[in-house]
Design brief:
The protein is an alpha/beta fold and 545 residues long. It is 48% helix and 15% strand. A five-stranded mixed beta sheet has the order 1-5-4-3-2, sandwiched between helices. The protein is elongated, with a radius of gyration of 39 Å. It starts with a helix and ends in a 7-residue tail after the last helix. The C terminus is likely disordered.
Length: 545
Amino acid sequence: MTLTVADVLAMPMLEITLLAGRDGLGNHVRWAHVTELADPVPWLRGGELVMTVGLGLPASPRGRAEYVERLSRAGCAALAFALDEHLTEMPPEIVEAAARLGLPLLEVTGSTPFIAVAEAVARWHADERVRGERRAAAAQEAMARAALRHGSLGILRALAEHTDCETLLLDARGRPRVSHPEGARPWHAEAAEAVGRLTGPRSSMVIDKGDRILQVQSLGFTGPPRGWLALRGTSTEWHTRILANQAASLLAIELVGLHRARARAHAQRAAVLSAVLDGADFHSAAFHSADFRGAALGRAAADRAAAGGGAAAPLFTAGRLAEICPMPPPPYEVIVAVARVEGEAPALADPALDALSDVMGDPAAEETVFVCPRAGGLLLVVPQTDPRLGPALVERLGALTGLDISAGACGARDIGEIAPAVRHATALAGGPGYTHVDDLEPWALLRDALDPEGVARFADVVLRPLREHDLRHGGALVSSVRTFLDCGASVEAAARRLGVHRNTMRARLQTAERVCGRDLGKARDRLELWLALSLDEFVPPGRGN
């Protein structure tokens, strides 16, 4: 709540009359100040009710009008005169200027001294401070109750109601998560852009847009921010800042709690995956660890195994993994990450959860991945996407920990291939950056070693006779040889693929042997033809000299 000129006029203990400038009655009065200077503007900050007996007024009518104009430009709330022996009547140029500018012109009458006006304004602000503290305390209690009942959305709703602001919660990467009012707003993009400009674990920013003010501050107690709180309203008064700080603390507690709950859930999932990879049975220590005891589905599976009487429990196989742990649909990207440090390897599971949240940006999808500490490094099983998630996860994990992170990765077409994929990924972990098995396949290595011009010359030498024959006779020797080789040198399979009779296929292959001077029954000749037909597929564009 703010004190206006109209409120001052309504104070019963003061005798003040409005002479002109009715349009400015809504001006906010920050302070009441007495001055007799000819130009008091350098000593004003705006929002003052300036009081004077006119000792500093210029002698000329033009100078008096300019006096009012300077006060108006300085942001004064109102100008008040007390008429006495020095100034017996209000100069008309002052009245005209005040009316033209919408600056309230007041006359302090009767026995009201200037000090009474100053005290009344000061007393109102002191009382308002007490009222504001009471409102802030009530609002803090409301936000605490909302946090217990409705979580982040309840906190944002209570903050918005008690500050008359719109509120927004963003994740650590500046992506909007929850807002009040609900739904996207144009200013959400401005808040996300502001987050991108902020650095450091404890950061904040205030952007004054004129009619609206945008405030952004980080959430968290230690380490990188776990999220960001943004408010958009009309003021940055002290009670708004207090409530914003309270909301930031509650949201930080909420986010830390959610992170710990996620960590416990992922630890339980990690225990299940480790049991699968290690071939543990239902009576092994892995299934009775503190991490695993809370997994309800795991207990149910153990009960089913134990119900089989005295017989030994079956091994816990990969086929039962999806029964206990929700998983994304295959295929998967299997990643093993290690920190390249001397001495004992640091724990990476906790920051890896933050990296997953930052990179994936989908809490529901994040719950279905695996984050599993292993002897060979931190194992992550994530959906296989294009582009892969692995490079971004490794980069973000390095940024969160400040460590040099190395990772090996391998694809898995289904659950049954996760275990061998882990072995391949572990073998690659420890090198620089991120390395995927597919990038080291033999054909990929051959591709990188080839000279495009040499490939073109080789293909021309081997295939020129066939191509010239096809050009002269309108035949299909090149495509027939390629299909024959792709079908494992099977005449029948090649004929079916091309839709021709097998005798026609044989005739084409015999003609091809005669034209190119090679025997398709010899492995070396078949290899030369296959390489000539296929090598251009392995040379990526842009590698020519």
